[in-house]
């Protein structure tokens, strides 16, 4: 983008005295402008201003209160011995599976009570998933994070919640250790195709000490029997 500026040469002596006439070449000159682009806007000190992060926190907090208050709920899920009231529209907006269940041709569209029997450990995982649906964040899972996290990852896969899958997989990568790599995480990663989690397990086992610690265990032997392709893939990773 540019514009033309007409220069009058009638008063050349005055122009030369000001010095800029020497910069003319073929009756034109070039002006350089440095532009600074701010990637974030500071709102501190601005009356009424608030950052996008604060808006997001407020939205999550309000959604959590809506879930807790149960105001306007129109569907109840029976998970084990516990029931959870929720809003069809909110669930459908976050999950294509819930959309089909609650607004499609499936039988759940005709009832306000849905029973879920294939989620383990049932209430804890469903509660965590429901929390994420409303707040876009995971609840505090204390010391049960690895166990609940892997079941939550499976639930996220079942309900087509891609963002929740990514978050769970990323969290579980931090819990890869001697006690979990062969007993649960590697098998879950293989069974459901969670490539990032599998790579984290392989990276952990590339340490000779870690591999030696589990290679003779019943859990690892059982895993290689159930998933023989894992053994050859692991050998390809650890081979020099």
UniProtKB/TrEMBL annotation:
It holds the Pfam family BTB. Pathway: Protein modification; protein ubiquitination. Residues 73-142 form the BTB domain. GO terms for biological process: protein ubiquitination. InterPro entries: BACK_BPM_SPOP, BPM1-6, BTB/POZ_dom, SKP1/BTB/POZ_sf. Belongs to the Tdpoz family. PANTHER family: BTB DOMAIN-CONTAINING PROTEIN, BTB/POZ AND MATH DOMAIN-CONTAINING PROTEIN 1. This is BTB domain-containing protein. It comes from Sorghum bicolor. The lineage of its organism: Eukaryota, Viridiplantae, Streptophyta, Embryophyta, Tracheophyta.
């Amino acid at each position: 983008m540019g514009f033309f500026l007409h220069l009058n040469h009638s008063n050349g002596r005055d122009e030369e005295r000001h010095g800029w006439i020497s910069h003319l070449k073929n009756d034109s000159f070039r002006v350089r402008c440095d532009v600074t682009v701010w990637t974030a806007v500071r709102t501190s000190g601005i009356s009424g201003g608030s950052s996008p992060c604060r808006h997001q926190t407020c939205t999550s907090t309000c959604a959590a209160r809506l879930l807790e208050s149960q105001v306007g709920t129109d569907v109840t899920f029976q998970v084990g011995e516990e029931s959870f009231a929720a809003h069809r529209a909110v669930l459908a907006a976050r999950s294509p599976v819930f959309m089909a269940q609650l607004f499609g041709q499936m039988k759940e569209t005709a009832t306000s009570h849905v029973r879920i029997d294939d989620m383990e450990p049932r209430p804890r995982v469903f509660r965590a998933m429901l929390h994420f649906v409303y707040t876009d964040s995971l609840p505090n899972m204390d010391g049960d994070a690895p166990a609940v996290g892997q079941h939550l990852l499976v639930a996220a896969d079942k309900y087509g919640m891609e963002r929740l899958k990514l978050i769970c997989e990323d969290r579980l990568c931090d819990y890869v250790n001697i006690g979990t790599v062969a007993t649960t995480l590697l098998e879950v990663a293989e069974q459901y195709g969670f490539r990032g989690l599998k790579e984290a397990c392989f990276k952990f086992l590339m340490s000779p000490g870690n591999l030696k610690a589990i290679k003779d265990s019943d859990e690892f032997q059982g895993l290689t029997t159930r998933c023989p392709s894992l053994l050859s893939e692991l050998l390809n990773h650890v081979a020099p």
